[in-house]
Amino acid sequence: MRIEYSLTPTDQVFYMKGTASRILTSNLINNPNIELVHSNACLNVDYRFYKYMQKNYERIRAELPFNLMISTHPWLIFTTKYILTDEHRKTITEHFKEEYVMLTISHLLDLITVKYLLNDNRKVIVGGSTLILFGSKYIRYILELMGAKNLHNLLLIRGYVDIHTDLYPLIRKWEDCEIVMTDPQSFWDCREDYIQKYNKFAHMVYQRDHKFDNRFSYVTSLLTLECWWGKCMYCSYKDLPVFDFRDKTERMSEALIDILGRYNENSLRFTDSYFEFDKQNLSLLENLTDYDIRVVGGVHRMVDEEYVKNFNKYSQMISLGLECAEDDCLRRIRKGTSEKMIWKMVDNMVKYVDRGKNIIFCTIADLPFRDEDTVRKNYENLMKIKRILDDNGFKRAYFNFSLLQIDETNKDRMFSLSPYISPHSTETSGRYKFFEYITDHDPVYMKKIFMPFTRYDDKGNKLKSDYDIIGKEIEYLINTKEELDARGC
Prior knowledge:
Elements: E1 2-6, E2 15-17, H1 19-29, E3 35-38, H2 47-63, H3 74-83, H4 86-95, E4 100-104, H5 110-119, E5 123-127, H6 129-134, H7 136-146, E6 154-159, H8 168-173, E7 177-179, H9 194-198, H10 200-213, E8 217-221, E9 224-225, E10 243-244, H11 249-262, E11 267-270, H12 279-286, E12 292-298, H13 299-302, H14 305-314, E13 317-323, H15 327-332, H16 339-352, E14 358-364, H17 372-391, E15 397-406, E16 414-417, H18 434-438, H19 444-449, E17 455-456, E18 462-463, H20 466-470, H21 474-477, H22 481-486
Parallel strand pairs: 1-3, 1-4, 2-8, 4-5, 5-6, 6-7, 8-11, 11-12, 12-13, 13-14, 14-15
Antiparallel strand pairs: 9-10, 15-16, 17-18
Helix pairs in contact: 2-3, 5-7, 11-12, 14-16
């Protein structure tokens, strides 16, 4: 069986040499019943369009209404625009050659690519983080809204493969299914990195604009698939199996150094939800001190001085899951942290973190606050965090915001997702308003997929979006001091 495997355009926003693609590529190569055909169709976008977006980015950003603030990286605009163009449809239908196509999807927008393939009468096999998060029922629901045809030609495989998982009988059976990996440690035998090896477009960009793009290029790796806390209201880990990929330090070090070397890469990002500086991880990090390492942490551990010192020593970026900074809301979303813990974390950062570090606070917009006053208090605290760091010489600290998404197949469930966009402003809350600006014609299904929702305060009154309440001051949060100084702000 010949299967054409590809990633999707959302994966080129940052050139992440991904854990999932590495495992799946190695799995398919080792399956005697599958002939793997690599495709760069989804990534083979028009270089001239990229150059246009790069050249005109500042003008485009200046034209944006304030209520659609876009993150500063131009790929965020470029990729979204491209996915929604007729050029993308033509690329999909003309460049994919095989009857069977396998896609790894990492964003709801990737379902547009799935739709084009189904409507072109391809047999489409879909996996990836978006399917794991939303589930098969919801993905099919969205594709129906999009007007996808031939849904009988769609196979959704939810879960995790290892190098030994036999996908062939699942594909032959052609029924949506869930799988669980049985040999997590085989991850270290997966050395083929599909994104680096087959993404011709990325190589073209590297060759012509290496300086511009290199800072966003890195290899990713997992050590554990779990969050030790796992109690947050919008937790995306609580329904997932727990895996520990770790093995002997020597085996892990050799594998990572080999992958970094064969793709001429110096940056390695561990994508663990909450990185632990335990004895095993510290031993691994000591073997990787020649590389740019980045990990993710959170408030629970950042109140510990030794944890902060290790974070500063080994990671070039301080990325922290904050969600919000107001006590009542923190209790409501079951974050397990408090304002007192947050200020202790900030104090530790001032004491022990190098001023040149990139510091990213991950927060969520439009949370279930008690009323407008608690919304304002939250943002006052966020502003205070930023001012303390700015005033103490940190020039690269900023906040990004995830937005909430309703599960239309289960209205009691909501997701917190890292969007392509920064906070928007609308009387209702949610994600979809961005598409009214970014598209020449607003697809009806976009309003249904990225459905707005209405918040109410504890007295039953309509609670507007955070950004209608707070206003333009939020721009201070989403920009580093370095960027603000450059603009004379």
